[in-house]
TrEMBL record:
Organism name: Rhizobium phaseoli
Gene Ontology MF terms in the entry: kinase activity
Domain Carbohydrate kinase PfkB as annotated: residue spans: 4-292
Organism domain of life: Bacteria
Alphabetized InterPro entries for the sequence: Carboh/pur_kinase_PfkB_CS (IPR002173), PfkB_dom (IPR011611), Ribokinase-like (IPR029056)
Gene Ontology cellular-component terms listed: cytosol
One protein family per Pfam: PfkB
Protein's recorded name: Carbohydrate kinase family protein
Keywords for the protein's UniProt record, in alphabetical order: Kinase, Transferase
Amino acid sequence: MRPLAVIGNVNVDLILGPAAAWPKAGTEIIVDHDELRVGGAAGNSALAWQALGVEFEIAANIGSDQFGRWLSEAFGHRSKKWPIRPEKTTLSVGITHPDGERTFFTTKGHLPRFSLADVFAVLDAARLGSGYALLCGSFLTDDLTEQYDAFFDWADSHDITVALDTGWPLDGWTQENCAATRTWLSRSGIALLNEIEATTLAGIVDPIEAARHIRLHMPQDAIVVVKRGPDGAIAIGPEGVLVSVGAPIVEVVDTIGAGDVFNAAFLAALAGDAPLLSCLIAGTEVASRAISTLPRNYGGPTTLQEPVR
C-alpha cells in the first residue's frame, strides 16, 4: 500500500441538534443529541483512517489550551511533533437541522498560524515518497496557504501526489478564490470537490462536463472526483474515462464531515491500487455509514477489503 498523509486543519467540533427553527434571541431550546469530537477537514479524514485501520501520518498544529491537549491525545503518537501555538484552539459549534443542513459558529483560534515549517516538523518526505498527501482547509490555514508554491515544489521533489480539498471559502467563491483554487489544482494530482465547487470553478452547470473541464487544467494523469451527496459520486480518471456510483440510502443523523470521510476512504482504496470505481464505492459507502450512525461509525478495518458489489 502506498503511504498516506493528511495536512491541514484540526480543531474541536461541538455538534448540537437538530434544531428545526432558529430560536429567538434570549430564549433556550432543547435538542436531542450532542457530541464533542475532533473536527476540521484534516481531523475528520484522519479519524476515518484511524477507525479503518489505515496507516497514515498527519501534519497539524494545536492551540496552547486544554482543547489543544485533547486533540493531541486523540491521535496518540501521530501528534507528538505537532507544533503548539500560543493562540487558543479553534472551536467550531455546528447546529444540525432536520433537513440535513447545518450552521457553524467558528472561532479563528490557532488554524491561521499553521505553516510550512509546521508541516516539515511532522512529515518525513522519504517515507511519503510515491504516496498521497491530502491537503485540506486551504481557506483557514493562512500561513501555509501563502506558502503553497513551496509546498507543491516539496511534494513534486519527493514524488508525492497531492489530493486537494480546499473546503468552503469564508467569503464565498469569489473570483479571487476561484483563481487561487485553479492555480492549486494545476499542481494537484487529485481534485476532491463537491458538486457546487466543481460547477462554480468550471463555470459549467453539468457536473460531469465541469469535471472534464477542470481536469484539462491539471497534470496529465490527474483524477477529478465530484462528491454529489445522496446522488453518489463521479470521477474522471487518467484516461479521461467517466466512472460513477450511487450512494446507499440511509437515514441521515449528521452530515458534518461527510466529504472528509469520503476523501479518506477513497484515498485509502486508491493507495491500495484499487480500480477507480472501487475507490468511489469505498468513499460513498464509508461516508454513508458515518453520517447515519451516532456515535459515528466507519465500519472498521475490514471495510475497505469487503467485496465490491
